[in-house]
């Protein structure tokens, strides 16, 4: 089990490093997403969830639909969040990159300085969390460490986003790792796999749903009159039953029209769960940094370093 976690972590680390170099002015988000997902498959691992590329005020849960034209601009704050599975054991990691290019065309120097501070704040929050994590620690203590580190930049964490425990073929395994002291007394145990993901913002620190649904999770089997919808559900059961999947994967398989109709019907009946992109409430900028750790008696092992 530990070997699989470590192998998945190395794959994610290598791909994250190479993909980060693509984050520059003019890059299509769909090209970045396709690169990450194809490289995970080439490595022999499985995709743990659709590659998320969330820009500026979007904190999480954006992945490209088919024929996505969204383009990265110089100076944008780009959150790259990816995950791979080896034997079902998951590595989940994210990094924020300020897109390279002629930044002056899009942002003032003061705005770029702010972007860099927000980027540094989430990284500092992650460092503080990792330094705090060990067997016997309450998860609220990790959240307090994150909040304190981010507050030193006069910024806020995202209060309603959390890290999470990981289990085999289970991306969100029931334990939440807060980004502030929420007084949760749950105590970490040796051997647990945890994804810690501080978000920092110059806004209020709350995210709300933005328009659109691009990521889905299978929930339950249900009957449908339309045979095409039933076929899509069967395909999801066979191929994406345990971890989130992209709507783009479905439209690539069944065509844009049939795939989109099926996903709408499946979501309406709650046979699948649709995830909306998450936007900072005040429209302010958001950064994210995430690693997966294995909890140990005297600390932790970071698998995605």
Keywords:
four-stranded antiparallel beta sheet, Creatine Amidinohydrolase, 34% helix, alpha+beta, 305 residues, 18 strands
Structure described in brief:
With 305 residues, the chain is α+β, with helices and mostly antiparallel strands. It is built from 7 helices and 18 strands.
Quickly name the level 1 CATH class of the largest domain. Alpha Beta
Q: Report the radius of gyration as a whole number of Å.
A: 19 Å
Spatial order of the strands forming the largest sheet: 8-7-9-17-18
Question: What's the number of structural domains?
Answer: 2
What is the CATH superfamily of the largest domain? Creatinase/methionine aminopeptidase superfamily
If helices are DSSP runs of H or I spanning 4 or more residues, what is the number of helices?
7
Shape: globular
* Class inferred from helices and paired strands: alpha+beta
Uncertain segments of ≥5 residues (pLDDT<50)?
none
Sheet-strand content, in percent, reads: 15-25%
Mean pLDDT over all positions: 97
Total number of strands: 18
Write the H/E string, N to C: HHEEEEEHHEEEEEEEHEHHEEEEE
- Span of the ends, CA to CA: 18 Å
Q: What does the largest sheet look like?
A: 5 strands, antiparallel
CATH architectural group of the largest domain: Alpha-Beta Complex
């Amino acid at each position: 089990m530990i070997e699989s976690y470590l192998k998945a972590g190395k794959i994610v680390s290598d791909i994250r490093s190479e993909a980060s170099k693509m984050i520059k002015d003019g890059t299509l988000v769909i090209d970045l997403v396709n690169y990450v997902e194809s490289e995970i498959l080439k490595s022999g691992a499985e995709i743990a969830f659709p590659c998320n590329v969330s820009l500026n005020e979007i904190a999480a849960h954006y992945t490209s639909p088919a024929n996505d034209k969204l383009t990265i601009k110089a100076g944008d704050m780009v959150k790259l969040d990816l995950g791979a599975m080896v034997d079902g054991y998951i590595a989940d990691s994210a990094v924020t990159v300020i897109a390279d290019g002629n930044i002056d065309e899009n942002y003032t120097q003061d705005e770029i300085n702010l972007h860099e501070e927000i980027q540094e704040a989430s990284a500092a929050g992650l460092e503080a969390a990792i330094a705090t994590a060990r067997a016997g620690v309450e998860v609220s203590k990790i959240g307090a460490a994150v909040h304190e580190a981010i507050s030193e930049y006069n910024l806020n964490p995202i209060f309603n986003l959390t890290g999470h425990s990981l289990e085999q073929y289970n991306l969100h395994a029931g334990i939440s790792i807060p980004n502030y002291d929420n007084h949760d007394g749950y105590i970490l145990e040796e051997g647990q796999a945890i994804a810690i993901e501080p978000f920092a913002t110059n806004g209020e620190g709350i995210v709300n749903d933005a328009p659109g649904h691009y990521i889905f999770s299978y929930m339950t089997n249900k009957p449908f009159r339309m045979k095409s919808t039933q076929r899509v559900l069967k395909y999801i059961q066979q191929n994406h039953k345990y971890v989130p999947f992209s709507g783009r994967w479905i439209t690539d398989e069944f065509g844009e029209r049939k795939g989109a109709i099926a996903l709408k019907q499946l979501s309406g009946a709650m046979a699948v769960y649709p995830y909306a992109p998450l936007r900072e409430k005040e429209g302010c900028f958001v950064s994210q940094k995430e690693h997966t750790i294995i909890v140990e008696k005297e600390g932790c092992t970071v698998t995605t370093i």
